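Why do we bother with holo predictions? Because pocket geometry can differ from the apo form. Keep that in mind while you read this record for pyridoxal-5'-phosphate.
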Amino acid sequence: MNADQDLFERARKVIPGGVSSPVRAFGSVGGAPVFVSRASGPYIVGADGVEYVDLVCSWGPALLGHAHPEVVEAVRGAAGRGLSFGAPTEAEVELAEAIRSRVPAAELVRFVSTGTEATMTAVRLARGATGRDIIVKFAGCYHGHSDALLAAAGSGVATQGLPGSAGVTAAAAADTIVVGYNDPTALDAVFERMGDRIAAVITEAAPANMGVVPPSAGFNALIRELTARHGALMILDEVLTGFRVGPAGWLGLEGGYRPDLITFGKVVGGGMPLAALGGRADLLGMLAPLGPVYQAGTLSGNPLATAAGLATLRLADDAVYEHVNRRSAELQSAVGEALSRAGVPHVVQNAGNLFSVFFRAEPVRTYDDAKDQDTAAFARFFHSMLDSGIALPPSAFEAWFLSAAHDDRAMARITDALPQAARAAADS
Ligand SMILES: *Cc1c(COP(=O)(O)O)cnc(C)c1O
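The structure, written out:
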């Protein structure tokens, strides 16, 4: 047994499934996860000292690569000045200003520690502001693990949510309506039927948690139009896309509409636990202490986290996004070519520099499409890549993440590993 397997055995005796978040357990690809001992640039190192090129990048935050010296220095400096105060700091003001200068629709910003808290707060605020109960979400969009947003779609295109997890009450799920993604007709029908009861529609700016499924042209603008017409709010969840697909996230790339509330996470914390809710000043002004919607957090706006976020945003200039975009385009074509050569049915889909590979022949526009793929072929592909020293996201339903640190050497290692992995995917 290798050191990762040893640690996994040990971990499972003290931690459910051996992990602190489910996808890390390799449940859908099998085997023991890599227990990371350290990371630098585009590389992670497992418990045995084996180095892997990392295409997870902490699920997004490591836009600059791991342990960027200037980010680490900023965190070290902050740590020396105190770990947590439970009082406001100048760095929070600077980070809020940096967010607003990139995303003007974030007129005011409230910091929290996780993306889950950001979306949960957005939902509470939308309900508090509108006096309505119903939240509309899309099948396949992930917004963290709060009760209201863990509703799963029933059958049909637009249904009352069913609890998406044990422990979510039927009542909590019943106020969530789940609509098929990229389905304007179904969304229209929901507003026709109950438009005056809908507090908000929440959507991933460009969904990347069912694999990457970009919004069809005009879909986000339609959400904006329908919500505005019916007095509901639009919550744009940019926890994953924000500051990753471009300097102003997906909104900056797509433009043409203005959401009421926007959630950020992942890159905005630079690898530390930090997320944020931004949006219209009149709405954010309804949060405590100014208004009646309660929200709080002992570690919110933590000084180490704000230091990492600020350093990351300061370093994430146009050159960083150009680099990540170019590496992403290179890798998308290299993967596509290797799979085509091996005769493996696949589609590579992207939303800016975010992309994923579906092991099926036809494009994916909905969650049902995404589920209809050959996940066993992905598992074979994944393990061949891992054996060659490339760490892909351990699920066929995740985006692949690159960073500004993915240089020629790292890219060559990935492309060298692809042909064998593609042949593994082909052999059932
Ligand atoms: C990761 C993610 C979340 C949840 O963020 P956590 O920090 O994991 O709680 C919410 N929405 C989207 C779109 C995400 O990708």
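The mean pLDDT is 96.
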